[in-house]
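Hi R.,

Here's the chain you asked about this morning:
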Amino acid sequence: MIRYKKLGYVELMVTDLDRAAGFYRDIVGLEPAGTGPGGELLFRCSEDPYTVALHRSDKPGFKRGGWMLEDAQQFDALHQRLKKHGVVYEELAPAECAARKLGRATRMVEPNTGATMEFYIPAQAVQPKPFTPTLAKIQRLGHVVWTTPNYDKAIAFFADVLNFAESDSIGEGITFFRAFPNPYHHGIGVARGKRNQFHHLNFMVTEIDDVGRGLARSSPGTSPSCSAPGAIRHRPACFSTSWIRTALPSNTATAWKSSPRKARVGRAGWNRCRSISMPGRPFGILA
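And the predicted structure, written out as tokens:
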């Protein structure tokens, strides 16, 4: 049984690195954390070395995400599960791990969504550095969501192979998973879609006011990279979300989550969702 600590980082490909960096720094409120070994720009919202990495690319999208394992013993369980189900994986070379401040890591491509996933433990020599919120009171990286036409197979893979625990679903259109035994409601979402695509990235924030402030910062009159902001109220008081479509292309979602209760999602075609979420306020980024 594979045991996790959390979703640790998400790395994105962007066509305009400077513009994207300004968006994540000045609109979202992430803290610049230097440059990675490949020239990627790093940002953080936790005590970890980085939470988001932006890579320059001709084609924007999801590059990879990293899930922190509970300890080094989990690699044996992970590798056994992947071998049993015929999933090709590679262990990252020590040089790459050192350059990215990882202690050890395994990389694979999820066969249904096409998403590149890494499973890692942090380098022992890396000392936690407190994160000081600025524009938004960000608590942590919340979740990442993909769409796929292979919805049912993807759901089975995350549950049966990777041992992610299903925490919630909205009809037959999207299923959320948490990185077991992580107590947070979910760190992954898989949605039914016409093609494999990165959908969005989410961050937890402390106050509901951060949702409105983030929406104001990203309004067309204040941000050259954003347009057509909108808001959705998930009722009854499960969480509030603001979606901001940007010209990167990238979208931002800010969300505030309250007490655990059932909620009807305010979006056509979505059914009543089950929620066992812990009290907290999520702030997110959608792409």
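Helices lie at 17-28, 74-84, 94-99, 151-161, 209-217.

Let me know if you need anything else.
M.
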